[in-house]
Amino acid sequence: MRTRFRVNGADVDLDVEPRRLLVSILREELGLTGTHIGCDTTNCGACTVLVDGKAIKSCAMLAVQADGAEILTIEGLAEGEVLHPVQRAFVEKHGLQCGFCTPGMIMTSYWILSQNKDWDEQDIKKQFSGNLCRCTGYRDIIESLKRAKELARGEGREAMR
Amino acid sequence: MYPRGFDYFSPKSLGEALQLLGTDPEVKILAGGQSLIPSLKLRTLSVKGLVDITGVKELCYVRQKGHFLKIGALTTVASLENDQTVASSLPIVREAAEQIADPLVRNRGTIGGNLSHADPVNDLPAVMLALNAMIVAMSKQGTRRIGADSFFAEAGHTALTPEEILVEIEIFVQGDRVGSAYRKVRKSSGGFSIAGVASCLSVADDGTIAQCRIAMTAVAPKVLRAENAEQTLLGKMPTGSVLDQVAGLAVKASRPSSDLNASEEYRRRVLHMLVKESLGASYEMATAR
Amino acid sequence: MSSLEAFARGAGKYVDDITLPRMLHMAVARSPHARANVLSVEGGMNAGDLHALVGGFGEGARRDVDPAVLHPVFASDTVNYVGQPVAAVFAADRYAAEDKLDEIDVEYEKMTPLTTVEDALSAAPLHAGTTSNIIKQSWVGVDFDDPASPVVLEDAFTIGRIANNPLEPRGIIADYDGARLTVYVSTQAVFSIKRGLCNTLKLKDSEVRVIQADTGGAFGVKSALYPEYVMAAYAAMAYRRPVKWIESRSEHLAASQPGRGVRGKMKLFAGTEGRVKALRAEVTTDAGAFGGTAGTSSPFFIAMQLTGPYGIEKARVLATSVMTNKPPQGPYRGAGRPEAAFFMERMMDLLADEIGKEADEVRLVNTTTKPFTSPLGLEIEASRPFFEKAVAELKYTEKSHNGKAGLSFFVLVSAVTPGESARITVQNGTVDVWLGGNQHGQAHVAFVKRLLSEELGIPENVITLNNGDSDALSDGVGTWGSRSAIVGGAAVIAAARKVRAQVQRRRGSYTADTLLDGNYDREVFDRHARQLNSFGANLATIRIDKFGVVTVQECAACYDVGRALTPKVVQAQIVGGSLQGIGQALYEGVVHDANGRLLTKDLFDAGLPLAENTPDFSITIVERPSSFPHKAKGLGEAPTIGVPPAVARAIENVSGIRIRHTPVSPEELIGSSDTQEATVKRR
Description:
The structure holds three protein chains of three kinds.
Chain A: E1 2-7, E2 10-15, H1 22-29, E3 48-51, E4 54-57, E5 70-72, H2 85-92, H3 102-114, H4 121-127, H5 139-154
Parallel strand pairs in A: 1-5
Antiparallel strand pairs in A: 1-2, 3-4, 3-5
Chain B: E1 7-9, H1 14-20, E2 27-30, H2 36-42, E3 49-52, E4 62-65, E5 68-72, H3 77-82, H4 84-89, H5 91-97, H6 103-108, H7 111-116, H8 124-130, E6 134-139, E7 142-147, H9 148-151, E8 165-172, E9 178-186, E10 193-203, E11 209-217, E12 224-225, H10 227-233, H11 240-253, H12 264-288
Helix pairs in contact in B: 10-11, 11-12
Chain C: H1 4-9, E1 24-30, E2 36-42, E3 53-54, E4 71-72, E5 78-79, E6 85-91, H2 94-100, E7 105-110, H3 117-122, E8 134-141, E9 151-162, E10 171-176, E11 181-185, H4 190-201, E12 208-212, H5 227-239, E13 243-246, H6 249-255, E14 259-270, E15 276-288, H7 294-305, E16 314-323, H8 337-355, H9 359-366, E17 372-373, E18 379-380, H10 384-393, H11 396-402, E19 406-414, E20 419-427, E21 430-435, H12 444-456, E22 463-465, H13 484-507, H14 512-517, E23 520-527, E24 532-544, E25 550-560, H15 567-587, H16 603-606, E26 616-622, H17 638-655, E27 661-662, H18 666-669
Parallel strand pairs in C: 1-13, 9-27, 11-12, 15-16, 21-22, 25-26
Antiparallel strand pairs in C: 1-6, 2-5, 2-7, 3-4, 8-16, 9-14, 10-11, 10-13, 14-15, 17-18, 19-24, 20-21, 20-23, 24-25
């Protein structure tokens, strides 16, 4: 089935079997292996990407459903050598250990910040209920999110582009 | 881990979608896919074909029309969570929406999907029962309006036929002296509900309860109302002992089962407390205005 | 491993990110029954193609078991747990590989499974040619006459099984070119995998190379040799095409090696002032369906640690590993240490209540003022100084009254023996390092850089720690058991000193510049066979709501790390490990029903904690240098040891209910909320 969408600003035009998941197309057809598969029951969020500005689990979406959509993956955040503020914050605040959940955490963080809402710490933690981490205990992930907000503001950017 | 093969259709209009649905129950509707796709991946479900209606953008809306709140079936749970009209006129819907799964699933999952899946642990069916919502379904034959009681009458399936698409939910938003609330408990580290209670009630001038609907989820093979409990509450003030009695009747009507996450007995105890909490919150809302 | 920056870009290279030309994907058909005779297997690659056994490689694994209890690669006559591999299929695409599972037809004759240790002890043996379901049983310690004691306390505890659940499931790619088998694997120990493959497939050392891909967490589950690895290797050799196997989460829950799953019976003999004179105990592990894994040896390791940081002069433990129709037990972060501490700490709290002393007072009475070797073989330094400091740092006295805090005190036994290997090469002004143990989130690179820059005077940015590669070193052990900074760090220093000496010999004197100018290549295996044990203490406060749901408010740690080589990493390890400890205490388990069917269907069933479950963490590091050249002691598993008993005691204090197992469920606590009066048998 012919499926056309944009990933990280580039046009994609593929013939895709309907049963193939979006995460499979990203990883295998497009070689964007930064988006990970951590489970088969839609719990872990390692596969989180943005579709039309919303963070979703790419393992629970068929690739054919992405027809006409604008997709942003972890590979699309940095501008060449320059990491996005969210990425920089995660590195600075040690918001990762094994790195496997990290792209999903970063994409969800990006989405959280793009909503520009005033959340308290417990609310923010709940925004991560679709992203599991086994290594960090989450504390440094939350710290990274807070730091990302500071960095983005400091650079005069809208929290996210 | 990965689905078996199936035929796939992606209609762009409601009319097109309806043409694709016949009497074959193995051709199913795909909306947000947050329940369907996980089942396909685990191969607990196989389908011959999927009719993906996410392209039918006309089914995505929240509108106030007079006393009615009309919600298009493809409205995502996240939209319900964030919609101002919903927040001000029917906060119970937001209360339920914001506790469904996680934010990422809510970004894709739709109210139509949540209602039509006939999953006995889903949250929105209980809310719709409590609000006495009207479910609007369409097929090639035309439109059918199904009251929530009828829609959720059976376990394992809703009143929808394989040819029908749930297109809209219509809820009468009453004015003064009405309150509603959704309360639930889920396994503390995430996952499905252990028990959930939606209640909606109206209060007479003397402070007694004039009308009441109590709906419970995750405590029976299907979502259900606690009708004896409702009857008992009518004409009374919601004192501690009245609520206790009402909650006891609701628990009597439930048929919880034991699983990994909770035993029957625990579910009953939790249900008892949730009925009281939900009714208490509804009453407070009704008398606050 | 890739750098933090690379991971943040999504540029890590985990096994599933690697694609080789002509690669096949493998899918595994698994038993739906907990116990059955296998009458026939049609389709796929199966026992008819490969008859081989696995077991005995990896952390805690034992080779000295009857081959009759070893795990076959493909089930042949019987299956003994739901999820046990029976056959494998291969296709160029992973979706098609899964479809091909439909082609496999297995005829089973169901048998009654043994799903509890009790069943297994009284039933006929599971494995033909054996006489019981006990893998190993023996006494640890020296027998004694029961001392005359005014206080004799007995209790029994159960720690449920837990799935390791690293975010990255297991995975491997095997590639054979006709002469050599090269394997890319998500692992903690390339040498365990290599030795295991050589042993099982009867290959020579020179014929196998194991390369560690970036590894997305492990916590103990990725050092063993698994049947699926052997299948992939064998298929690669048979088909002359690379074969990739990536585990699904469902497979991880069913068929990896879950940890914990232990029962402890404790009997303390004490004086009225609380001094414990003697300990009798029984430790029994539910080792699962096969021997040779860590489950075989874990009761002995638990037994050895039971006296903990206390000077208990008489102790004897009966340690037993028992087979049941469940997946074989493996190590999960802590791997016997949390169990030992839970059993002893729960008894200390019971003792405190019995004699009317505070939890810290009764422990203080039992600390040692001199180094002590317990009758079970555990060597500890004097424990009193650390304990006094910890109680003060944790503010226990204040918090026990206001917040009903739970306290724990424990020993971390680091797996020092037999040491570790390290290799350093210098060329083109850059320094490359390989360690025998393979990091998977613990940022070994950080301590390697620190130690090398200290030893050699070089800037950190010229140093690279490479992923594990069995071609890069002649031998190695693995990353587990809180050992890496200790023995990996020591090996790095030993190798650095050799390089330094070499520079000295060649160039007459040593400077960092002279080093970086030249070409050097030195490998050492730094041998150690002694114990290096360290102390830790935890404090926890909790709340219980009306539904019985526990919220941990504060989780405080005071650990002696010897020397904090990399403070940021130390913090990170403690926070991450603490949440795992909370997971064990409150949420986590992998549960089979009476028919041996797995009830734990997904990560929520398995109870993995979420961000919203995190408490406030407070961490105090004590640095009492070890005698190793870097002065560090172990760390990684400390939080998984100390947190569960502290949380258990806090729950007890608030609810008035004695806690004897983990996880503790809301169901047990409902109605005991701290809004009601709780009565605990206190003074």
